[in-house]
Amino acid sequence: MRLLFTYLACVFLGGMSVNVFAQDKVIFEDDFNHSKKFEKNWFDNSTEEKTGKIEYKKKGGIDNSGCVKISNPERGAIRIMHSLNNLEPGKLYRMSAMMKCVGVKEGRGAVIYLNPDGLEQGWNASKFVYDDMEWSEIYMDFVPNQKGEATICCALGFPWGTYNGGKALGEVYYDNVRVEPIGDKLYHRESKHFIVSLDKDKVTITDKQMDRWLANLDRTYEAYKELLGGTPYGGRKIMILNTPGIEPGYWALAGNPILWNNKVKVLTLMIGALVFFMKLGIIFPLGICLVVEWEDGIGMMRFSLISECHML
């Protein structure tokens, strides 16, 4: 792949921009107004791609400021990456960026995401942006690994296989990247074994209903522990986290956190569906899955072997 880093020196200077002593303030930000800072903060490892390029632009960003352009005439997965250290394990952070798109097609489109290495959830991403879009803010919420590390990516295309192929073509521009703790932006409820972190406008049930549901999940967790003599994820709490970055038709993606489609409101009638996905994530290692069958608007659950589930 041909890379064009205009106004950049050849020496990579590294750069882990984390304020350890101010964890409730901005952790990292880059407005791309300085080429030296861009060189220090970002790196690229899209070496598997034969086409496409990454360009640092002195103009063309918000208010004609600096920005980064990623383009590819063919489908690929090209990205710039920044590594964060000294984050707090188990704590939620939000990455946001301004994005502009021209003719983006296929795969996951223009997208920000985390490098999945060392993570218990490898599919976390922002919404997928296609076609033409003027400057707009996109975001992704995430939890770092158990060492307090995360590598954020601003990309055109997604490198790992999804049902839509992941990889994309077109042009995308990035500006004003920021990482900060999530704070009170989400709805939070917590039980003995689970944490719920959802968009506030998607929650239309009461705290009492949510707590009752979480108590049921705790009992499922305890039954799993008694049956297997162990717990998933080393006994750490399992989080349910809203995400804008999920393929159409998917309710949730397994992992920790479990990613819940933020286009789906948490209605009272959806609690059964949430229980399904939570129990699926817990029971899957047993070689057993749960099947939900709908009849006259009522969801019925039953256990099946994994081999049988593939045929349903």
Q: How would you explain this protein's 3D organization?
A:
With 312 residues, the protein is α+β, with helices and mostly antiparallel strands. 15% of the residues lie in helices and 37% in strands. Strands 1, 2, 3, 5, 7 and 9 form a 6-stranded antiparallel β-sheet that branches. A hairpin with a 3-residue loop joins strand 10 and strand 11. Helix 2 (207-228) packs parallel to helix 3. The longest helix has 22 residues, at 207-228. The radius of gyration is 21 Å and the shape is elongated.
Would you summarize the structure shown here?
By secondary structure, this protein is an alpha+beta fold. It has helices spanning 35-41, 207-228, 271-283, 306-309, and strands at residues 28-30, 53-57, 67-76, 78-84, 93-105, 110-114, 131-142, 150-156, 168-181, 186-190, 194-199, 238-243, 252-253, 258-261, 288-295, 298-305. The chain has four helices and 16 strands.
Low-pLDDT residue intervals, each spanning 5 or more residues: 1-23, 284-312
**Which sequence of SSEs, written as H and E, runs from N to C?**
EHEEEEEEEEEEHEEEHEEH
Helix content: 10-25%
**Total strands:** 16
State the helix count.
4
Mean pLDDT: 80
Note the beta-strand portion. 35-45%
The largest sheet, given as strand count, sense and whether it forms a barrel, is:
6 strands, antiparallel
The Rg value, from CA coordinates, equals 21 Å
What is the CA-CA span between the terminal residues? 42 Å
Helix/strand-derived class? alpha+beta
Tell the overall outline: elongated
